TrEMBL record:
<dbReference type="GO" id="GO:0016226">
    <property type="term" value="P:iron-sulfur cluster assembly"/>
</dbReference>
<protein>
    <submittedName>
        <fullName>Glycine cleavage T protein (Aminomethyl transferase)</fullName>
    </submittedName>
</protein>
<dbReference type="InterPro" id="IPR006222">
    <property type="entry name" value="GCVT_N"/>
</dbReference>
<dbReference type="GO" id="GO:0016740">
    <property type="term" value="F:transferase activity"/>
</dbReference>
<dbReference type="Pfam" id="PF25455">
    <property type="entry name" value="Beta-barrel_CAF17_C"/>
</dbReference>
<dbReference type="InterPro" id="IPR057460">
    <property type="entry name" value="CAF17_C"/>
</dbReference>
<dbReference type="InterPro" id="IPR017703">
    <property type="entry name" value="YgfZ/GCV_T_CS"/>
</dbReference>
<dbReference type="InterPro" id="IPR045179">
    <property type="entry name" value="YgfZ/GcvT"/>
</dbReference>
<dbReference type="InterPro" id="IPR027266">
    <property type="entry name" value="TrmE/GcvT-like"/>
</dbReference>
<keyword id="KW-0809">Transit peptide</keyword>
<dbReference type="Pfam" id="PF01571">
    <property type="entry name" value="GCV_T"/>
</dbReference>
<feature type="domain" description="GCVT N-terminal">
    <location>
        <begin position="12"/>
        <end position="108"/>
    </location>
</feature>
<keyword id="KW-0808">Transferase</keyword>
<feature type="domain" description="CAF17 C-terminal">
    <location>
        <begin position="202"/>
        <end position="272"/>
    </location>
</feature>
Length: 292
């Protein structure tokens, strides 16, 4: 089982008698239903509903939690959580003595530490919180985990969506359990709830399939129209941001999708349930044919 030290992740610890109550009212996931050892996927949003930072969130103990967060977002997240705290009895500190590793694939020896299931998708494996010195002794290649998550179509903030300019739906957080729509208020909740119940997101992250190697950042076109952009890539597949309406028009009109000169196919990830109109039309025609 590969155990990969995720050098681009850091941990922030939240402790205090009001930690659970405070965090439940600020971030997108449900904190108050968590027991020790549980994990959630969530985010802190702007009041306008855009992602400041996403993170994996672990219940370390009674009123003790860990944020598994991109290193590039840690200082800003720490600052904003402290700003929202006001008089709540909760303290935030960077856990500089700890690190995060990804555990996935075939069975093998796993270093001692706290294991948490990856809450986004079981196939991703587990996250291991362990001493920094033990993590630094691991010899696995971080590229192994990148290939693993890209092959599963799991987005990553930075390569696949821009912090501060992306709604949770556009990053597929609603599909991966990153937003609890029943928990009540949190920062940005009104905008996210309205998008969930009253409209269809125009942009989505989807899987892109290709036979010829593609460069990250390659534009996807249908004729003279831009449909999206290739983001993270691995062997023969990747993640792309796509205008679903334009992709649907292209599929309906029989216009090929190209990334440069390379034909590509777009596919909804297996774990996603959002609608891609051309897939729905194929299903409707199939049902009509079988029923005739």
């Amino acid at each position: 089982m590969p155990v990969v030290y995720l050098t681009d992740r850091v941990l922030i610890r939240a402790t205090g008698p009001e930690a659970s109550k405070f965090l439940h009212g600020v971030i997108t996931c449900n904190v108050q239903t968590m027991a020790t050892g549980d994990a959630r996927y969530g985010a802190l949003l702007t009041p306008q509903g855009k992602i400041i930072s996403d993170f994996l969130f672990y219940a370390e103990g009674d009123d003790a939690f860990l944020f598994d967060v991109p290193a590039e977002r840690a200082e800003d997240l720490l600052k904003r959580l402290t700003f929202h705290r006001l008089r709540a009895k909760v303290t935030f500190t960077k856990a500089d003595d700890l690190a995060v590793a990804a555990v996935f694939g075939d069975a093998a020896e796993v270093p001692e530490g706290a294991l948490y299931p990856d809450p986004r998708l079981a196939a991703l494996g587990q996250r291991l919180v362990l001493p920094l010195t033990a993590a630094q002794a691991l010899s696995s290649d971080p590229a192994l985990y990148e290939a693993h998550r890209i092959a599963l179509g799991i987005p990553k903030g930075g390569p696949d969506f821009t912090y501060g300019d992306t709604f949770p739906h556009e990053a597929d957080m609603d599909q991966l359990g990153g937003v609890d729509f029943k928990k009540g208020c949190y920062v940005g909740q009104e905008v996210v709830s309205r998008m969930e119940h009253r409209s269809t997101p125009r942009n989505r992250l989807v899987e892109v399939l290709f036979d010829t190697p593609l460069a990250t950042g390659q534009e996807i076109t249908a004729g003279d129209k831009s449909v999206g952009q290739v983001l993270s890539v691995t062997d023969g597949r990747g993640i792309a941001t796509v205008r679903l309406d334009r992709a649907n028009d292209a599929k309906t009109d029989g216009v090929p999708l190209l990334a440069g000169e390379v034909p590509v196919e777009l596919r909804r990830p297996d774990w996603a349930v959002f609608s891609m109109e051309w897939e729905k039309k194929v299903s409707e025609l199939d049902r009509k044919f079988k029923g005739s």
